[in-house]
Design brief:
By secondary structure, the protein is α+β, with helices and mostly antiparallel strands. It has one domain: SH3 type barrels. Strands 3-2-1-4-5 form a five-stranded antiparallel beta sheet, with helices on one face. A hairpin with a 2-residue loop joins strand 4 and strand 5.
């Protein structure tokens, strides 16, 4: 089973080889993420990230719904 986690793009840039990369924030933690599969991602967008690769753009409402579900899972006994 695979899990993709939503994060907010806070910066977009290219690496030395021209690959689209971004700084994505996950609950206050920022990570470098490859944006090659979502080249239209911009600062402020939400993306689903799986093992360091953004695989889809999502809207803020969907991201917040996933955050709520993850909070519920964490709180479950």
């Amino acid at each position: 089973m695979c899990l993709a986690v939503p994060g907010k793009v806070v910066a977009v840039a290219e690496d030395d080889s021209g690959l689209a990369m971004g700084r994505v924030e996950f609950a206050g933690v920022r990570k470098e993420v490859c944006l090659a599969w979502v080249p239209d991602a911009r600062e402020g967008d939400y993306v689903l990230v799986h093992v360091g690769f953004a695989i889809a753009r999502i809207d803020e409402a969907e991201a917040r719904a996933v955050f709520r579900l993850l909070d519920e899972l964490e709180a479950a006994p």
